[in-house]
Amino acid sequence: MTKFFQLLASGLALGAIYALVCLGFVVIYRATGVINFAQAGLVVLGAFMVYNATFTWGLSFWLALLVGMLFGAALGIIIERLVLRQMVRQPLHAILLVTVGVLLLVEPIVTTIWRSPQPSIDTPFELDKLEIGDVRILQISIAAIVIAAIVLAAFFLFFRYTKYGVAMRATAVDQEAALMQGINVNGIIALSWAIAGVVAVLGGAMLGANAGPKTGLGVGIGIIALKALPAMVLGGLDSPGGAVVGGLVIGVAEVLAGGYYAEFAPAWLKPGFHQVLPWIVMLVVLLVRPYGLFGTKKVQRL
Question: What's the structural domain count of the chain?
C-alpha cells in the first residue's frame, strides 16, 4: 500500500496540472466552440518564460510566475486578435487547423531563443521528499496540488459570482443573445483566451519544475500538455468541473499504470504503455459517451 499511496500522490500532482491545462481548453471551447490545440504551445512558452525570469533576470520564483502569467494572458489575447479573429465565419476545421499551426510554431521559437536551458525551473520547493508515515512525497508535487486547487477554486468563484463570469456563461450559451443583452462578446472571448494563457503558464511552470513524473524543462512539455485533451473529453468538452475530474482521473490512471506495469502487464505489452493510456481512454469515451461525464448532451430535433 505504501507504493500505491506514493503513486497516488504523484498521479494527483500530474492530474492537477492536467486539470489546469484542461481548464484552458474548456474555457476556449465554451466561448468559441473550438478545440484550441495552441493551448499546449502556450504551456511550453509559459514554462520557458518563467525559466527566463528566474534564471536570466534573477527574479524569485513567485515574481517570475507572476511575470509568466501576465505574459501568458497577453499572448493569448494577441493570438485571438491577430489570428483567430481573422477566421470568424470560416469553417470549423479551418480554425482548428490554424490552432494546430500555432502549436507547430512553438518548437522552432523555443529552440531558437533558449538553446541550452537548465534541466528544470528553480523553485522554493526542494526535490526532497516529505515523509507522511511510510509514504514519501516530493515537495514540488504537494505544491502543484495546492497551487492547482487554489487557482481552480478562484476560477469557479470568478465564473459563478462576478459580472464577467456571468457574461462568460451567457456567451457560452448563446453569443447572439448575449450580444443583444449588451455584453461585449469580443471582449469576453479575448478574456477567455487570457484565462487560457494564465492557466497554461501555471501548468507549464509546474511541469518545468518536475512536478510531474519525469518531466523537466523542454519542448516535450507540449506533448505532456496535450494529454489534457483526453481529460477534457472524459470530463466533458464544455464542463469546467469535468476538466478537474477528468484531469485527476487521467493523471492518476497514467501514473498507476506506469508504476504497476512491470508487475502485471503481459509480456507482449511493450514498455511505455502508460504514455498512450490517456488516448485509449479518450477513444473509449468518444465511442461510449461522446459528450463526456459532465458535458452537455446536445439534442437535435428533426
Answer: 1
